[in-house]
Amino acid sequence: MSARLAGYALMFSDGVMQSCQIMQIEVTYQAPTRAGVMKEKRQLMSMKANYCMFCGEKYDKDEPAAAA
Fold first, then answer.
1. 28 touches 40 (CB < 8 A)
2. Positions of the chain with pLDDT under 70
3. Which of these, 29, 36, 59, 67, is most buried using a 10 Å CB contact count?
4. Per-domain residue ranges for the chain?
């Protein structure tokens, strides 16, 4: 099994920028086919960070922080 980060994005909503990173994850693994032969499979999924990768602050789950 292997995994790699393929990119990231920032979220914008309701006219407010929320610096919350979403990273695309690519996972590759071996799975058996109906014939019993192992075949490489690949899945793409996204992962939302709980902490800012730049400053280390935890994101607020309910709503974005108000601009000061």
1. yes
2. 1, 3-10, 13, 18-19, 60-68
3. 59
4. 2-48
